[in-house]
Amino acid sequence: MNQLFDRILATPDRSPAPLLLVRGVVGFVFLLEGILKFVSPDKLGVGRFVKIGIPSPEVLAPFVGVVEIACGLLIVFGLLTRLAALPLIIDMLVAIATTKVPILLHGGFWDMAHEARLDFAMLASSCVLLAVGAGAHSLDAWLRKRLGQQQSWRMTLSPE
Description:
9 helices
């Protein structure tokens, strides 16, 4: 279990500034989109889910909004970043499948490519965060350091 937790919190020291920028943008966009599902429910929340044919829109729109807010905040702070990126990747895949594939089928590739540019950028950025973690300037890195210190402290006290 400790190895799994270490793997989730692993934050390589490569490129801390770019990762901080990616985390800030991804987290902020998802946080904003989640809030907007509640602020403008007819346009971006339940009404939008009804329009694109998502089942149980009165349940799923608020659920997706909460997921985007919670995971967006986790990513901004770099806390459990890899775990937070996973639902956002699923979110973007569903968004592409339900809103951009119909554009592709009816309007063609170029219309879809234009409409999907933010979706693809958010998907790719979330995949980067899933793959490499939050980076050195994150709560994940701080937690990993703290947990590592506690483990080494416990190891020096054990009478083996």
